[in-house]
Amino acid sequence: MPHLHLDASDREEAEELRRRMRWEAEILSMNDRIAQENRDYLAGVGAVAFNVIGSPGSGKTTLLEQIIRLLGREHPIAVLEGDQETDLDAERIRRLGVQVFQINTGSGCHLDARMVGRSLPRLDLRPGSLIFVENVGNLVCPALFDLGEHAKILVTAVTEGPDKPLKYPHIFREAHVLALTKTDLLPHLDVGLHAYVENARRINPHLVIFPVSSTRNLGMRPLLDWIVRSARAERVAFSGA
Ligand code: MG
Ligand code: ZN
Fold first, then answer.
1. What is d(CA 193, CA 157) in angstroms, rounded to the nearest whole number?
2. Which tens digits make up the pLDDT trace of 59-104?
3. Start-to-end C-alpha separation, the chain
4. Is a pLDDT exceeding 60 seen at residue 200?
5. Parent domain of 137
6. Does residue 1 register a pLDDT over 80?
7. What is the Å distance from ligand 1's center to 235 Cα?
8. Ligand in nearest proximity to the CA of 155
């Protein structure tokens, strides 16, 4: 081991790093507190929220559109749309006759619990409401910020390649469900479905994986069943508490 000598600027750098880590820890613990408030609010209403995460272009909005078409008749659905700019996705959801509120984060690259907490009262929620929070497209920091959701649904398209779980393990570990989208494009790719499933399972053995094509309406039923079942279990859990 070489002898490590810290000069003044190294010490300053180390101190700066410690300060930044303390600051990040404070932000995350404040976020967790507000996420708990959101959870209590939702439990009070009897609504269940899903945090929909994934990279830009993975098909989050298209998947939500299909979920709304297939579930919207039997279940009250509301959507919070997170994007840096524009309300293009909110407009797509609104066209399906579902209530939606747009959150623009500006330069922010993820939603946090405070943004969601401020937006929830804008939705007309009732017992049994399913809320889908579409996070900002990003495979990194949405993994860190609890929004008060019941579960995280990670959306990854097969066109993103099977290496994503290995490159972005944190978000795959945090997710409860993986919607593996655009499976209709698999015939055009060099790899089969098993490569995606294998890598995702290697990072998170508990991940529930649903291969789907939203545009072709393939494989949607098992995902819808999971959403409805887990929302019901959550409502039973908080009404019994
Ligand atoms: Mg979108
Ligand atoms: Zn971020």
1. 11
2. 999 999 999 999 999 999 999 999 999 999 999 999 999 999 999 9
3. 56
4. yes
5. 8-239
6. no
7. 27
8. 1
